[in-house]
Design brief:
It contains 5 helices and no strands.
């Protein structure tokens, strides 16, 4: 009985250790967001790399705003609006006119559904 208990504890311990070591990328990961946008807009690899860098920069600025405003949502929203606008403009400079038109539609659709998605570097997106 002691062996069985020991084996159960060992297996549980190994399972916990194994799962804690795996860090899956989140939907807010700049590279994943850029790849999702790549699928949506048929971006080149070079464009995708540039968009990922823009998303990364945006996410870092968002984290700084969050820290500076101590999580106060009202203050954060005022500070985030110009960041979102700047992020959209930076991304559009990387896109062709046809891609930019599709991007505008994606941003409009994500805002209409209550999200921010493609227009920032920190929120989750739907990459279907």
């Amino acid at each position: 009985m002691k062996r069985l208990s020991f084996l159960c504890c060992l297996l549980v311990g190994l399972a916990v250790t194994a799962t804690s070591q795996i860090k899956a990328p989140t939907a807010t990961d700049p590279v994943l967001k850029a790849r999702g946008l790549q699928k949506q807009l048929k971006l080149t690899d070079e464009q995708t790399t540039k968009v990922a860098a823009i998303y990364k920069e945006s996410a870092e600025k968002f984290e700084n705003i969050k820290k500076a405003e101590h999580g106060n949502t009202d203050k954060m929203m005022k500070s985030i609006a110009p960041l979102r606008t700047a992020t959209i403009q930076k991304i559009k400079t990387v896109l062709t006119p046809k891609q930019a038109a599709k991007y505008d539609a994606l941003v409009k659709d994500s805002k209409a559904s209550g999200g921010n998605g493609w227009s920032d570097g920190w929120s989750a997106t739907n990459t279907n």
